[in-house]
Amino acid sequence: MTQLLRLLGLGRRGGHLVIGVDAVRRMLQAEDVRCVVIAADASPRAIEKVVRLAEGKRVPLVAGPDAVTIGVQLGKPPVMAVGVRDRGLADGILQSAPARQRTED
């Protein structure tokens, strides 16, 4: 998880991230996201808005730490979703963390 956070920090400094549920959703619709990191404690609203759209667009999902930890790393309040726009950065993130597994009720 430390490597994932480190890569998110690099992406933030390089301007390669889209931060927040609404921004990630817009970029998913525009097909300008290579992968999405979802906070472990993401709200049902975030899951509904982002995860389903990402799955529909076949954008890989990565399980992240809790929203507060992601927010601290990015210098923001708690963050439930982060979109990665850079292909190389997305590849590094996908290699550093297992894909998020959805559980169906």
Record keyword descriptors for this entry.
disordered C terminus, alpha+beta, 5 helices, 60s Ribosomal Protein L30, Chain: A, 4-stranded mixed β-sheet, 105 residues, single chain, 4 strands, 50% helix
- Rg: 12 Å
Content of β-strand: 5-15%
Number of domains: 1
CATH class membership? Alpha Beta
CATH structural fold name: 60s Ribosomal Protein L30, Chain: A
Strand order of the largest sheet: 1-4-2-3
Which structural category fits the helices and strands? alpha+beta
Instruction: Give the overall silhouette.
Output: globular
SS field, number of helical segments: 5
CATH architecture assignment name: 2-Layer Sandwich
* Biggest sheet statistics: 4 strands, mixed
Q: What is the CA–CA distance across the termini?
A: 27 Å
Tell how many strands the DSSP assignment holds: 4
Helix content: 40-55%
What's the layout of helices and strands?
Blueprint: H1 2-14, E1 17-19, H2 21-29, E2 35-38, H3 44-56, E3 61-63, H4 67-74, E4 81-84, H5 87-96
Parallel strand pairs: 2-3
Antiparallel strand pairs: 1-4, 2-4
Helix pairs in contact: 1-5, 2-3
Q: How would you sum up this structure in a few lines?
A:
With 105 residues, this protein is an alpha+beta fold.
